[in-house]
Design goal:
This protein has 123 residues and is mostly helical. It is built from three helices and two strands. Strand 1 and strand 2 form a beta hairpin.
Amino acid sequence: MKAPPPPKDLKAPGRKIWRELQAAYEFEVHEAALLHEYCRSIDTLHELAAIVEREGVMDPETVRVHPAVVEQRQMRIVAARLAAALRLPSGDKEEGKAGDGLRRPQRRVGVRGIYSIEGGRTA
């Protein structure tokens, strides 16, 4: 099956990630939406990096950390959570089969247990 083309709103970094991941993995419909958001967050991270590169880490007017640095930190968290939701490998070769590094980690399915509030019962 041919991989779907990247969404039109993605910029070069996001399109590159989209193509690489679509070539390596098969995504369900709901995962494609997460992948789109992941690629958009990568685009945003690249834009923020360019701002920080151009303007510096410190905001000269307020003598504080540049707002783009703060936003970068937040976007990194978003990207990491989206990557985890997509079950993308972290880059460790041991995570996949015998050194291929391309297999997505095992799905977590089922219920871990039944949780209830103890006490409070009346006889």
